[in-house]
Amino acid sequence: MELVLKQIPYFMIVFIRLGAFVGMVPFFKNKSYSMVFKTSFALMVSFLIFPALNFQNWVIPESMFGFAVLIAGEILVGVLMGLVILILIFALELVGHMVGFQMAFSMARAVDSTTETQTNVIGVILIMTGTMLMLALGGDHYLLYSIKESFALIAPGHIVVTRDLINELSKMTVNSFVLGFKMASPAIVVLLSIDITLGIIGKTASKMQIFFVGLPLKISLGLFIVTIILGFLKVMWGVNIEVLPETFNNLFRLMRI
Length: 257
Fold this sequence. Notes:
Blueprint: H1 2-24, H2 35-49, H3 64-102, E1 109-112, E2 117-120, H4 121-136, H5 139-153, H6 163-204, H7 210-231, H8 233-236, H9 238-242, H10 244-255
Antiparallel strand pairs: 1-2
C-alpha cells in the first residue's frame, strides 16, 4: 500500500500530460465527446503506459509552488503535441477553403468537428478523410509511442521553451501551408482558367447566360479534382503521418534542458 501511495504523484504527472494532449488534439474536440469521456480516456491510456515508464529518476518538488510549476510544464508538453496534429490538419482545411471558394462553395458550410466551427464543406470532407487515413496508417500507434517516448526524452521538470523550438513550430506551420497550397493548386489553376474562359465568352456572346453554364461546370470539375486530390492524399499528406515519431522526437529534444 505504501508503494502505491508513493507512485500517485508520478501517475498524476503522466495523467496531466496525457489529459492536456487529449484536450488539444483535434479528434476529441467534437462536442459529442463529453469531458467525462475525455478524462476517462486519458486515465485509461495513463494506466496502460505507466508500467512501461522509468520514473525512478524523476524528481518531485516538495513545495506546492514547485509542483505547480512542474504541472504547468506537463500541460505545455501535452498542448504542444496536440498543436503538431492541428498543424497537420490545417493543411487539409486550407485545401478545402481554397478549392471550395473557387467552386463557389464559400456559402456551403458544415460543422467542422476539429474546431467546432462552421467551415467549408470540402474542408470537412478532406479533414474526415485525413482522419480515417491517419488511423489506417497507424497514426494512433505513432501517437501512443510518441507519448511514451516523451517521458524518456523530457523528464518532468526539465522542460524549457527555446527559440529553436519556436522556430521549429513556425517551420512546421509554413510547411503545412505550402503543402496545402500545392494540393489545391491544380484545382485553382483549372477553375481559374474556366473563369477566364467564361469571362471572354461573356464579352463576345453577351446574350449567353454565363452564370447558368459556368456554375454547374465549375462545381462538376471541382468535385472531380477533389476526387483526384483524395486519391493522392496518402502520397502528399500521409507521409507526414508516417514520420510523426521523428517529428515529435525532434520537438522533445528542443524542449528539454
